[in-house]
Write a structure and sequence with these properties.
By secondary structure, this protein is of the alpha+beta class. The chain contains four helices and ten strands. 22% of the residues are buried.
Length: 199
């Protein structure tokens, strides 16, 4: 009998781990192809995000909970004699919600909003950041090298207090990409080679 117990214990543990992995889809965000480009008014940021929501977040949206996604952008300049200089720090918030009366998903940013028939369609637009003005014209020195960084995160602080308490204690609500960082020289305007660093 002890032999059977020794054989069954690892087998049961393996089955439990497989069930947990199948039932618990991880939510995550990753950044792809961040680019700073010159425009009429200054420099604009474009980037793609892979956004994977888990079942808990899908369910929250379906129940009318608004999710707040924030894109953070930072630009710094290295200084050998002191701490890095922060040139600019910007954030843009997107609200993702579902309206039961119209049976449509809504994606809003400031006064602008779009409606979609499915969550997948709304996520597709949310995942494509295009032409966000992050730097004014003349704010950079042409021959200096800067480090740009961008990430996307789910901002729990903007949610109702009752959800904040539950969300902070639950890993399913912990959703943030790593910072994608790349070097940027205004005079070169080359496609960036970027790296992803831990949170």
């Amino acid at each position: 009998m002890p032999c059977w117990r020794k054989l069954l214990s690892p087998l049961l543990c393996g089955i439990l781990l497989l069930c947990a992995a199948a039932g618990g889809q991880a939510a995550d965000i990753s950044v792809r192809n961040p680019v700073l480009a010159p425009g009429d008014e200054g420099y604009t940021l474009s980037a793609d995000f892979n956004i994977n929501l888990n079942a808990r977040l899908d369910d929250a949206i379906a129940r009318g909970v608004t999710l707040y996604f924030v894109v953070d952008f930072e630009l710094t300049r290295s200084r050998w004699y002191w701490l890095d200089e922060e040139v600019v720090s910007r954030s843009q918030t997107f609200q993702l919600s579902y309206h039961a009366l119209t049976r449509q998903y809504r994606l809003s940013s400031g006064a602008l909003h779009q409606s979609f028939a499915s969550l997948d369609d709304a996520q597709r637009i949310l995942s494509r950041l295009r032409n966000w003005l992050v730097l004014d014209r003349g704010s950079l020195r042409p021959d200096n090298t800067y480090q740009a960084a961008v990430r996307m995160r789910l901002d729990l602080s903007q949610m109702p207090k009752t959800f904040q308490v539950n969300a902070l204690a639950n890993r399913d609500w912990n959703l943030s990409s790593d910072w994608a960082r790349w070097h940027f020289t205004p005079s070169e305007l080359a496609a960036p080679v970027f790296s992803v660093e831990g949170r």
